[in-house]
């Protein structure tokens, strides 16, 4: 009986569930396509003819797709939760009537969960079919945009369905869980009430979760100065999600209060601003639901954008601190370029960067082959622990980042396979990070001599003789440069690396945050329109009291601006805190590193959020102004 009632409710009031349906369809499509892409990548990576670089490329693609789905599903919970929160709020009298005629709290709760299940099943079916149709398009796009040159074959469709559909249903149930609990607490007397005062006080569980999140912030702030940059970056990526959850737990208190503070300068000059302030104060749940996606997308997106920008500043500063060579030659894979540089009498050191593929700890790795004397003179190679004098034979040097990731240190041994032989490589030294100069693993030439002969150098770091002018040496090298070679100054090389890193970061952010941004847009528009529908009679009464249509629209605009502004302020504080953690770690590791904040991207996120919220509010107000003309005046008796 409850299931039949849930189906009837969804069928009769389907516009209220439209936002959740669209969000779930999109989520299932995204997850289904992602599973298919990861399956295609895994099948291709197992092929025998795949090179080390291609396998690394495929692994990076899998990681990127997985992270994208995780962030998007996190946002989907907000959309579904806000939708069902509004559904419960608008149906209090109906739910009270159900309680009045004998429905138990458990039955009411089950009815709301089954309604979410009905929406989820319909959305999952549509999403699964759409994901199957879009998978070939996604595989084509990956090759068209140059993410890989390999041909990827889609796995069977049932694999994507078996994962995407259950996850979609689970997301719907998670989003509706809190709303179903609130619905079960609606008393029978609600059927007789004309109005209801919303409770702003968070529940016990919500307060406990908020306290845990606050404790995490305090703990991070205490250890921020001693945090390694890599760990700080990881914290800045995952901490915003935790902070958003904490803010939402106390959202009915925090968000209306923040919106009231923003409204204070305007309420004295504009009566519509005062009306908007009073409305957002009275409707605390609507305020929190509308601000939630703004807080989430601004906090998470801005944190990621600024963090990755600071990481690019950090890696460039590391390279600049290490690089001693004033000139860098890119060989383009032509060994003759390196030979011509080494043969120039004005060149004192021609330090060649070569990388070979070795199996270390069961994984194929790109390993740098170094000449210690040349690398020390041109790339500032040195040891922070251990000694590079011990780097010969079956030994390896690793970067500080590698020790943080893998947990190894000087004296440990790593199982490896070199030229078909199993060997154990002893870690002889730990070297500073300089990603643009060398990788995380370095081995001596005598260990991999047969592989070195087959591998042309990628770069040559050039140190001229003491009595030579670097610009004159550069001109001479350019004049005699074989095909494919390019001669760069040290600053030009660092700038190219930095630009390439930022382009890769920007592309990755579009992939990661694009779906999440669409979710946030759906949530903002959905919450604004449903919230406006709750105020239909209020707007009609205001019109009957003498307010003009223009004033009603202005009040809606002020309310949306205050709520959106409050969400942006709190999201900005989250992003600023996370960025500050990364910046402290970077300054401690490389003092004087540049600080680059991508203001166009940050301001673009804020402007887009405000535009969406205000536009949806104006659209809802315009509809209700027209509808309000036909609402009869209330009987004074």
From TrEMBL:
The keyword Kinase does not apply. It comes from Nocardioides thalensis. GO terms for cellular component: plasma membrane. It is a multi-pass membrane protein. It comes from the Bacteria. Residues 67-188, 518-620 form the ABC3 transporter permease C-terminal domain. It holds the Pfam family FtsX. This is Putative ABC transport system permease protein.
């Amino acid at each position: 009986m409850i299931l039949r009632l849930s189906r009837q409710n969804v069928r009769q009031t389907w516009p209220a569930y439209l936002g959740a349906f669209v969000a779930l369809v999109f989520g299932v499509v995204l997850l289904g396509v992602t599973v298919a892409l990861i399956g295609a990548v895994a099948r291709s990576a197992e092929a025998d003819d795949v090179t080390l670089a291609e396998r690394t490329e495929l692994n990076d693609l899998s990681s990127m797709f997985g992270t994208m789905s995780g962030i998007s599903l996190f946002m989907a919970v907000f959309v579904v939760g806000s939708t069902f929160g509004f559904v419960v709020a608008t149906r209090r009298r109906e739910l009270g009537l159900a309680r009045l005629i004998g429905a138990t709290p458990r039955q009411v709760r089950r009815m709301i969960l089954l309604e979410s299940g009905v929406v989820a099943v319909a959305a999952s079916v549509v999403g699964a079919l759409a994901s199957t149709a879009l998978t070939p398009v996604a595989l084509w796009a990956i090759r068209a945009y140059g993410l890989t040159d390999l041909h990827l074959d889609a796995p069977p469709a049932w694999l994507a369905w078996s994962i995407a559909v259950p996850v979609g249903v689970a997301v719907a149930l998670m989003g509706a869980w809190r709303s179903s609990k609130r619905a079960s607490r609606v008393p029978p007397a609600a059927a007789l009430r004309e109005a209801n005062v919303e409770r702003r006080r968070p529940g016990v569980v919500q307060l406990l979760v908020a306290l845990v999140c606050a404790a995490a912030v305090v703990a991070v702030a205490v250890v921020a100065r001693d945090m390694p940059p890599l760990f700080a970056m990881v914290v800045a990526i995952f901490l915003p999600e935790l902070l958003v959850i904490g803010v939402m737990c106390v959202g009915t208190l925090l968000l209306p209060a923040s919106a009231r503070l923003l409204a204070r300068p305007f309420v004295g000059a504009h009566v519509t601003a005062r009306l908007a302030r009073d409305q957002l104060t009275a409707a605390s749940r609507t305020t929190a639901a509308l601000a939630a996606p703004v807080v989430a997308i601004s906090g998470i997106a801005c944190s990621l954008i600024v963090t990755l920008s600071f990481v690019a500043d950090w890696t460039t500063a590391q390279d600049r601190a290490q690089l001693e060579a004033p000139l860098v030659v890119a060989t383009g894979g032509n060994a003759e370029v390196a030979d011509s540089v080494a043969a120039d009498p004005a060149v004192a050191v021609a330090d060649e960067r070569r990388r070979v593929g070795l199996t270390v700890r069961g994984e194929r790795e790109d390993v740098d082959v170094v000449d210690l004397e040349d690398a020390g003179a041109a790339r500032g190679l040195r040891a922070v622990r251990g000694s590079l004098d011990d780097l010969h034979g079956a030994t390896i040097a690793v970067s500080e980042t590698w020790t943080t990731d893998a947990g190894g240190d000087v004296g440990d041994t790593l199982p490896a396979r070199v030229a078909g032989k199993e060997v154990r490589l002893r870690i002889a030294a730990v070297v500073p990070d300089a990603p643009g100069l060398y990788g995380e693993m370095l081995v001596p030439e005598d260990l991999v001599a047969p592989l070195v002969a087959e591998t042309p150098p990628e770069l040559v770091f050039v140190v001229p003789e003491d009595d030579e002018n670097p610009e004159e040496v550069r001109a001479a090298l350019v004049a005699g440069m074989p095909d494919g070679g390019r001669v760069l100054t040290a600053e030009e090389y660092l700038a190219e690396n930095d630009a390439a890193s930022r382009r890769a970061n920007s592309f990755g952010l579009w992939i990661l945050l694009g779906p999440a941004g669409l979710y946030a847009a759906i949530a903002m528009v959905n919450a604004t329109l449903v919230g406006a529908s709750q105020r239909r009679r209020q707007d009609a009464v205001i019109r009957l009291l003498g307010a003009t249509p223009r004033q009603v629209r202005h009040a809606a605009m002020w309310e949306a601006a205050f709520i959106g502004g409050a969400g942006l302020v709190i999201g900005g504080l989250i992003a600023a805190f996370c960025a500050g953690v990364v910046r402290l770690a970077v300054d401690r590791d490389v003092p004087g590193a540049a600080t680059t904040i991508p203001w166009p991207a940050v301001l673009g996120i804020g402007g887009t959020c405000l535009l969406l919220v205000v536009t949806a509010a104006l659209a809802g107000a315009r509809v209700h102004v027209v509808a309000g003309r036909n609402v009869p005046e209330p009987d004074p008796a």
